[in-house]
Amino acid sequence: MSHDAPRSAILALADGTLFRGRVFGAEAEVAGEVVFNTGLTGYQETLTDPSYVGQIVAFTVPELGNVGVNAADDEGERPRASGVIARHVARAPSSWRAESSLPAWLARHGLPGIEGIDTRRLVRHLRERGAMPGILSAAEGADPDDLVERARALPGMDGRDLVTGVTARAPFELRAGLGDPLGAGARPPREPRFHVVAYDYGHKAAMLRILVDRGCRVTVVPAHFPAAEALALRPDGIFLSNGPGDPAAVGYAAPIVRELLGRIPIFGICLGHQILALAVGARTFKLPFGHRGANHPVREVATGRIEITSQNHGFAVDRASLEGTGAVVTHESLHDGTVEGIALPALHASSVQHHPESSPGPHDARHLFDRFVASMEAFRAAR
Predict the structure, then answer these.
(1) Residue 63 catalytic?
(2) Maximum distance among all Cα pairs of the chain, rounded to whole angstroms
(3) Can you give the pLDDT at residue 4?
(4) Catalytic option among 45, 270, 296, 313
(5) Which helix (H) or strand (E) holds 86?
(6) How far apart are CA 72 and CA 58, in angstroms?
(7) Is the pLDDT of residue 126 over 80?
(8) Minimal CA–CA distance to 210: which of 321, 318, 342, 355?
(9) pLDDT tens, residue by residue, 158-190
(10) 216 is a catalytic site residue
(11) pLDDT at 359
């Protein structure tokens, strides 16, 4: 395909709305839930985040790909999003860290992107109508009416367990720390003081590497790993990772966490936060268009402190359903008031909805990991 004459591409939404543009990346066809991300940075971290499984991501930033891609910024071993939507894509990256251009990287992994569409119109549409299924097609001669009909037949995110497809297949130990953010390599690991068992619901690498940097030996286990076997590993704490899909559909996760509650400190992030809430009897619900981006304001209830957070979730914890569970709301969204964090002081557990490891950035809320380490230290001292 000529650089000057890229093949046309079509984005067809389940409500019949069509967007026409140009393909970049792979000349392929993909289906998924069409969502938008408002972050100005971190497109590579977003696309490799397993939480985006089954989603076609529209980026609101005017130009995508200007810093290219590099292996150090991957949050998983490969892209997990289904496809990419952009206003304009840079073919020649301008960062010294770049190892490839974004279009070449997507093509290598078989992912298509569409550019040249009115992303502002698309985002307004999704805000009004909600995130919905769609098909992104770069197939030659694709029929728009057929694409719409097939998009209408796609399942939504409600009731779908996507964790089983991305979780670890067997336990393994993570030993590498986060490394220098400018790519200078991993820091020498600290001598481990604590052992953390991390339930993998679709984890981002940076979250676990931060624990390694804080002196933790991390054993990653599959989402189905029995509580008794986790405790048999003699950990000092349990970490519940982020992940994709409907938390209520991951029916095996909450009972496992319920068995662990009160016996060991627990810290959950994103899907892990929702599963912790389900474990104490709360409910979750689907947001109209979700929270996705690196610029979402969250208030810490106890201090009034405002943090600008990285987020990626389409479901939230029902605040009213927390009554009588022993959970205290610790953080809330300033966009819509939804629950962004809970604590269960009597059970040594806490969680946040946002991603405090600051990947894709920009705000660093890693003090929440420090609190988890402090809770393990206190629990150990009280034994």
Answers:
(1) no
(2) 68
(3) 57
(4) 270
(5) strand 83-86
(6) 23
(7) yes
(8) 355
(9) 999 999 999 999 999 988 787 655 555 555 666
(10) no
(11) 67
